[in-house]
Automatic annotation (TrEMBL):
Gene Ontology MF term list: ferrous iron binding; oxidoreductase activity, acting on single donors with incorporation of molecular oxygen, incorporation of two atoms of oxygen
Domain Extradiol ring-cleavage dioxygenase class III enzyme subunit B: 6-255
Organism: Paenibacillus validus
Record's keyword annotation contains Oxidoreductase: yes
The name this protein goes by in its record: Extradiol ring-cleavage dioxygenase
Pfam families documented for this protein: LigB (PF02900)
Keywords on record: Dioxygenase, Oxidoreductase
Highest taxon, organism lineage: Bacteria
Gene3D superfamilies: LigB-like
Length: 268
């Protein structure tokens, strides 16, 4: 198999510049670097990432551009995330395979190759940490907001199937927060109920109880307003399958009322 590693990551704007990360988020900064070290050790041929800020209406989009290049000014924070250059290779062949695998099971999965497309910051912030030298191809995937969690999980299963069958060493990353009732004030914690949900969900992942995590997700994603309605997590669970991976918890911090965990899932 060549799906070697999966990551759950976050992307609070404060992580754009390391020297601006506040004290209460230092555990995540360390987690980003642990995740980068894992990638460096593995030397993968490609990183596939789904972002909870790449939100699309009807289709599951897979970015098949041979090169991702541009300057990101984030719609959500045009003053703080402004004109950030990026340049990473893509993997057109694998991206096309991922979309085809979705179509194979009747899902509206679409590969696109559009040089004017600009990444979202949910993609860019983790990728800047994971691939600091810009030397590993990236494929970014959307969260399709008209897809149910079940459909999204199914797409994740198809992605996992393609990555396992690939001759390339692959890493899958999911970028998004868990609880996500945003409030003004970067240091604000999630509510006690939301934090309890985050803790339980993380515990299930660390214990390898992916079936229980999947059973919890529909109710939890509504109660805690999980980012992207829980779709970035549903895809991750679909990719992981049931038993092949051992999860390690790397860190958690709040950001404007959201709960931000980092985990690595290593093949057993
Ligand atoms: Fe976000």
């Amino acid at each position: 198999m060549s799906l070697e590693l999966a990551l759950l990551s976050t992307h609070a704007p404060s992580f754009l510049h390391e020297d601006q990360v506040p004290d209460f988020q230092q555990s995540i900064l360390k987690a980003f670097h642990r995740q980068r070290e894992k990638i460096e050790q593995l030397k993968p041929h490609v990183l596939v990432i789904i972002s909870s800020h790449f939100l699309t209406n009807w289709n599951h989009y897979v970015n098949a551009a041979p090169r991702h290049q541009g300057f990101l000014t984030a719609r959500e924070h045009p003053d703080t995330i402004a004109n950030i250059p990026y340049d990473y290779p893509g993997d057109q062949e694998l991206a096309n395979e991922l979309a085809a695998a979705g179509k194979e099971v009747g899902l509206p999965a679409v590969a696109f190759n559009e040089s004017t497309y600009i990444w979202d910051y949910g993609t860019l912030i983790p990728v800047r940490y994971f691939i600091p030298n810009g030397d590993i191809p990236v494929i970014d995937i959307s969260c399709n907001m008209s897809a149910s969690l079940e459909e999204t999980y199914r797409f994740g299963q198809q992605i996992g199937k393609v990555l396992r069958a690939s001759k390339k060493r692959t890493v899958f990353a999911s970028s998004g927060a868990l609880s996500h009732h945003l409030t003004r004030g970067r240091a604000n914690m999630p509510s006690l109920l939301e934090k309890a949900g985050d803790d339980k969900f993380i515990e299930l992942l660390v214990e390898g109880k992916y079936d229980a995590a999947w059973a919890m997700l529909p109710q939890y994603s509504v109660a805690a307003d999980v980012e992207s309605g829980g779709r970035h997590v549903a895809v991750l669970l679909g990719v992981l399958g049931l038993e092949e991976f051992k999860a390690s918890f790397l860190g958690y911090a709040q950001s404007s009322g959201s709960g931000n965990p980092h985990l690595v899932f290593e093949s057993k």
